[in-house]
Amino acid sequence: MRRALATLAVTAVAVVLLARYETHPPPKPPLPARPAQAPPRPEPGVQTGTGPLLATPFSSIQVRAELTRGRLTGVQTLSLTGVDAHTQEINARAEPILVEEALAAGSADVDVVSGATYTSESWRDSLRAAIRDARRG
Amino acid sequence: MVERVGHAMGMPIRIAVPDGIAGAALDDAFAWLRFVDATFSTYDPGSEISRLNRGELPRGAAHPVVREVLDRCAALRTATGGAFDAGAPLPGAIDPSGLVKGWAVERAAGRLEAGGARRFLIDAGGDVVLRGGGWRVGIRHPRRRDRLAAVLALDDGAVATSGAYERGPHIVDPATGRPAAGALSVTVVGPELGTADGYATAAFAMGARGPAWTARLADHAAMTILPGDRVLATPGFVGLCAGPSIAGSLCGGRTAGRSLSRRSAR
User: Fold this and answer.
1) pTM of the predicted protein model
2) Which of A86, A94, B95, B156 has minimal CB crowding within 10 Å?
């Protein structure tokens, strides 16, 4: 059962990968499309690229980078975790809401402190590969 | 309170179990982390992954966990017509290290649960996995090592922070090759450590564009600390703070925990 579910999950991600695998340049529609039905056109100067799949037995992830005029402007992550396949899509049209505050410095009784280490190198490598791919695109 | 610190994957790892746990369960969790280290390290030429990628280790002789990785990669490669490994350094080579830390720590949490632990935390070099509720998680101040920039009240999930303050500017913006500019640190809270770690790293590499990007992530909350003593956070992050605001979280405030849905653990 577990294996069957895993197979389903793999299939689901594969479909998503295929759906997202764009051709360059995008094919022209055979007839002039009405504006409401026109596929979204990539903005000029935008390139996308995909990094290698990073997999562990129970989760896998793939990074897709978007460059605008050579600058990193977006990262999309396809994620498959356990038997529950899902994609973590970034909705580029949603208006992001952020709360701004002044940086505070204080002390408090806590159980644990989260801080940066340099253990995320492989993530960075994966992003680099996606960017190289975008530049080749 | 039972607490133990070990070393695996190049960092100290602390497991804390307030209500206590059998020593054998802790032994098991650390043994698992050391096994992952020895098996999946792409830096160690003697690891199974390195030997497999050089063609020295027959697939059938590899550890079942490694074979499972290979099977999944092969299935994906076939199903996508090879699309997925565009950009892979070697055809067929696998590099699972991007997720190994998060995955290994989440699995260690599963082993502790199997050993009877209900409430515990694992601190893997500043990236944290929490179970069982009622935790207070401090976020390190980027410029003052002995201070906190926020306190979160969390029940379950993972917290990952990416920044440039530890050991110098270690994160390079992959697009420019220069040290990432525009943020001092990015903290991401989510259901599972591997993804939270990846998001924190990506948002930090995106510099000034990172905060807006984190605001669009599903199921995750984030805080970016910028130069000039500015903090930009998602509303979800503020909602997890142990106080009415990020700054107010440092002064006590409520202690009731929250969690983001943990889809992955089921």
Assistant:
1) 0.69
2) A94
**A112 contacts in chain B (CB < 8 Å):** 14, 16, 121, 123, 128, 135, 137-138
- Please list every residue in chain A whose beta carbon sits closer than 8 Å to the beta carbon of residue B176: 71
* Interface touch B86/A60, C-beta < 8 Å: no
Q: How many CB pairs under 8 A join A and B?
A: 312
Name chain B contacts of A61, Cβ cutoff 8 Å.
98-99, 194-195, 198
For residue B11, the tally of other CB atoms under 10 A from its CB is: 15
Q: Write the pLDDT tens digit of every residue in B7-27.
A: 887 788 999 999 999 999 999
Contact A17 B195 (CB under 8 A): no
Give the position of tokens 């993530």: A123
| CA distance to partner chain A, nearest, from residue B235 (Å) | 6
The verdict on a CB contact (< 8 Å) between B251 and A77 is no
Residue B7 lies in a domain: yes
The long-range contacts involving B74-80, CB below 8 angstroms and separated by at least 24 positions, are B75/A7, B75/A10, B75/A14, B76/A10, B76/A13, B76/A14, B76/A17, B76/A53, B76/A55, B76/A60, B79/A10, B79/A11, B79/A14, B79/A17, B79/A18, B80/A14, B80/A17, B80/A18, B80/A21
The CATH number assigned to the domain holding B194 equals 3.10.520.10
Nearest Cβ partner for B246 among A51, A67, A101: A101
pLDDT tens per residue, range A13-42: 333 333 333 333 334 334 433 333 343 455
- Structural domain contains residue B266: no
Res B31 pLDDT > 60:
yes
Range of the domain at B169: 2-253
